[in-house]
Structures are given as structure tokens and as C-alpha cells.
Amino acid sequence: MAHDHDDRHPHGDDHGHHQHGGGDDRHSHGGGHHRHGEGHGHHDTADVDWAEMGPQLEAQAELFAPLYERALAWLAQRQTEPGLIVDAGSGPGVIAGLFAETFPGARVLAVDSAGPLLERARARAGRLGVADRFATLHGELPGALADLDYPADLLWAGRSLHHLGDQRGALAVFAEHLAPGGTLALMEGGLPTRFLPRDIGVGRPGLQTRLDALEAEWFAQMRSSLPGSVAETEDWPALMTAAGLKPTGTRSFLLDLPAPATDRARDHVADTLSRLRDGFGDRLDADDRAALDRLLDPDDAASVHRRPDVFVLAAHTVHTATRTP
Ligand SMILES: C[S@@+](CC[C@H](N)C(=O)[O-])C[C@H]1O[C@@H](n2cnc3c(N)ncnc32)[C@H](O)[C@@H]1O
Fold first, then answer.
1. Compositional bias (Basic and acidic residues) at which positions (predicted)?
2. Distant-in-sequence, close-in-space partners of 12: CB < 8 Å, separation ≥ 6
3. Ligand 1 contact, 140 CB (< 6 A)
4. pLDDT tens-digit series, residues 32-73
5. 184 is a domain residue
6. I need a surface site. Which of 27, 53, 280, 322 has the fewest CB within 10 A?
7. Domain count of the fold of the chain
């Protein structure tokens, strides 16, 4: 199990795992701190305080809801009546909430190592009116799954597996916690999201492509700095096969929010670019840095807050596999 402690980013959580909801409140094992990062170069060291990312993760998942709804509708054709759905690395629970709505007969368990994100997930479940069949489990994946009372009929890991050092090992544990006939669904990979045309009339064309390259470097650094990091060829169906599962499909889902962008989409674009500016600004050349500064300056008509050509085009890939009965 992955443990780590980073005094710079204390999560302020305890040293045990707790399950909330559905009448359960049990302890399990493991440490309560971690230091992995998403967030596009939030820090040079690839460290991010996940709890601090709560509002941003929630806003992003809400903006991406149409993409998730299509992915979940596709899953609903494969796993028609799951009894227990586990969202491994749920974050603030936007997708877990969509699972609860898509599968009204299912119990949903959101698992994450960031306690404050699970608090958000529980609050959301309350707002959605699904709290009676929604629970959270606080702990480090994949070990936290040892606390499941029942095997999962559907185990979803959306952009979370890549934050675990040993992805192959984690997949094997995910597979062990699937019921016979159950489905594992991994959302990993896809395409870099696009917000702007290639030539934005400010600086050199191709800014987003250059930011993508920096982000890919950050990602590699993030992965290699994870506790117990193992280099792995990211052939997800092959890795699911190695975990004893039978791959059943791969499909990519689009989020296509064309220009003119809504305020919510603009906020997402500005938030993402500002994190890229914070994380990678010093590795960009002066022209690109100046272009990014203009894009982020609300007083500038060329900024993403005001320019008419801002859009959000994203493609995320889902891979499924079943545990044969
Ligand atoms: C990129 S976010 C994805 C959140 C959500 N699945 C989504 O798609 O919006 C990754 C999530 O994985 C969680 N996470 C990262 N490492 C973890 C670990 N070792 N154990 C449990 N959760 C972890 C983080 O706290 C965060 O909520």
C-alpha cells in the first residue's frame, strides 16, 4: 500500500480509515497522508494537496458532466443492474453522484485518501437525495478496498489509477474485489484538452501544444515520484488481462463545448491556464509566458475571460473488463 507523508501538504486527516454512510463506520488500516499530484504542474515536485483541489476538481467534473453521462450510459449497457458500485479515487464525488443517479438500484461507495473530498461527496449525495445508498471509505488505494463488505459489481477508477505507484499491482487488487461477472471500468488516457485555436493572434502559434509537452514531462515526474512507483507500459487492456480480467471494450467520450464559451467554461479554461502558468511559467520562453499572461489578464480583450474563440474540446477514454464468473 502506498504511504507517504509530506509535511508541506498535511491533509490534517487521521491515521486510520473510516467508512461513512449506510450505517457503517469502521476502521481499517494505513496512513492518512499522501503527496501525489494532479493539477498540471501545480508545483515543480508534482505535489498537490488534493483537499485544496476540491473546488477545482468539483467544478471540472461538473463541467464535464455530459461526457461522464455518456460514459455511464455506455457502462449501463454492459453492467445492467449493479448492486454495489465502487468509485476508486472518487475525489469530491461528482461522478459517484452520477453513478447513483444512473443506477437507482445500486449502492455507491466513494473511496479516496482525501477526507475533505469525501466530505464534499457526502454533502453532494445529500443534495441529490441519494444519501441512503451512498457511503464513503477513507483510505489509501488499493489497500483500502480490503474494507469492502461485498465485492463490487462495477468498479470505476476515473483518472485515479495513474496516481498509484504500482498500477499493475493496483489493478490486481481491483480485480480481486470484483464480483464474478463484475466490471472494472478505467478512465485513463484520451487526448490533451483544447481551449483555443492554434493561432490565437498573440505570441507564437501552438502555445497549447508546447504546454502539453511540459505537462507530459510533469506527468512522468509525478509518476516516478509516487511511493512504490513502477514503470509500466500503459496498455490498459493488456494490464487488465494480466490482472485476470477479460477486456470487453474501449471507447472515448467527447466533451464538445464550442465557442462562444459559457462563463463556467471560461472559468475552467482560466483556472487550468493559470495553474499551468504557476507550474511551468519558468520553463516557457519569454514570448509564451507573455502570451499566457495576456490570456489570463481579465482587463485584456485578448484574454480567455473576454475573447470570443474560447472553447472546451476534451476526449477521455474508458476501458472495461469483466471478471469471468
Ligand atoms: C485526478 S483526481 C480524480 C477525481 C475523480 N475521479 C474525477 O475524475 O474527477 C484523483 C483522485 O485520486 C485520489 N487519490 C490519489 N492518490 C490516491 C491514493 N493513493 N489512494 C486513494 N485515493 C487517491 C485523489 O485524492 C483524487 O481525489
1. 1-28
2. 51
3. yes
4. 333 333 444 344 445 668 888 999 999 999 999 999 999 999
5. yes
6. 27
7. 1
Q: Which residue has the cell 454495489?
A: 84
- Rounded to whole angstroms, the Cα distance separating 263 from 266 reads 5
Length of the chain: 325
Residue 79, in any domain of the structure: yes
46 Cα to the center of ligand 1, angstroms: 14
Ligand 1 centroid–CA 60 distance in Å is: 14
Q: Are the C-beta atoms of 82 and 154 separated by less than 8 Å?
A: yes
Examine residue 112 and state whether it is found in any structural domain, yes or no: yes
Closest Cα to atom 4 of ligand 1: 91
CA gap 99, 107 in Å, rounded: 9
CATH of the domain at 95: 3.40.50.150
- Please give the residue range of the domain that contains residue 36: 19-189+234-255+318-322
DSSP state of 79: S
CA distance 113 to 91: 9
* 34 C-beta closer than 6 A to ligand 1: yes
Atom of ligand 1 nearest to the CA of 64: 9
Q: Is residue 282 part of a domain?
A: no
Residue ranges of the chain with per-residue pLDDT less than 70 = 1-48
Mutational pocket test of ligand 1: of 53, 112, 193, 230, the residue with most ligand atoms within 8 Å of the beta carbon: 112
- Is 159 close to ligand 1, i.e. is its CB under 6 Å away? yes
Q: Write the residue with the smallest CA distance to atom 14 of ligand 1.
A: 89
Which amino acid, 278?
D
Residue 110 Cβ inside 6 Å of ligand 1? The answer reads no
Is any atom of ligand 1 closer than 6 Å to the C-beta of 36?
yes
* Residue 204: φ, ψ to 5°: -80, 135
For residue 20, the model assigns a pLDDT of: 67
CB 160 less than 6 A from any atom of ligand 1 = yes
